[in-house]
Amino acid sequence: MSDKPFEYALDDYPLAPATLYHVGGPARLALLPPNADEAVAAYTWMMGRPEPHLILGKGSNVLISDDGFDGIVFFTGGLERIEALGEGRYSVEGGAGLERFVRDVIVECNYEGAGALTGIPGSVGGAIYMNAGTANGSTCQFLESIDLATPAGLRTITMEPGLYGYRGQSFCTKDDLILRGLFAFTVSEADQRAVYEHYLKRRREKQPWGHCCGSVFKNPENDHAGRLIEACGLKGARRGGAVISERHANFIMNENGATFEDVMGLILLCEERVAERFGVRLQREVVVVR
User: Fold this and answer.
1) Whole-angstrom Cα distance, residue 158 to residue 163?
2) Does 239 qualify as catalytic in the annotation?
3) 169-197, pLDDT tens digit by residue?
């Protein structure tokens, strides 16, 4: 791609190592801005280009085609600053690792929230965008506001409960860049390190570890996607190098050089069998990029 104004604009950038699935071909062009100011400049340039674009954090919830992405992929990894503002308030840039934030801030300061956010991979920006969480809570409930770069310019959104719900939100589109979130926490009366260690242990026992996106599907109301998939007898089903985990059926693992089609085939198999048996249409949590 010609006319590149940044030294951190790289051609034919490999995407598989940038995702937890370790699946996917290269990006035609990657932008890896090192800080927030450069990120705004790079984002503005990207949005003025005709090519398709994709904003990518730590790649924890995406499945990318083996053909790669014939456009611009914007990486948020340079946005990793965490700033303490006092009285339980923190400015956290979108590329900061959520696991590091939980461990070094929430647990270290004994704030409420360890039960909601422990064990979730990915970036803070990705967690905000997906409203990632557990049965104990979700990311957006701890936010006061977020700063966005949008095609129309910079915006600050004051967070309200009506703007987010289960694994989703209405304040940010896929074309917007989450620059930072302003979080507010309260000190807990319970030992949050014990809570943190409990949920890490529970995840190690109940969820598989390896190359995967985490949960493939959202849980249907009053049910669990893993239970429905398991009830269809699909635990252990394989396609090429991909397998539906024996430990938890809502995890599809890249065990042995799986391709995009391997993983996608199992996703479609789960959707088809669950619909046939239970009349339930599973909703994907994983974002598929073709």
Assistant:
1) 9
2) no
3) 999 999 999 999 999 999 999 999 999 99
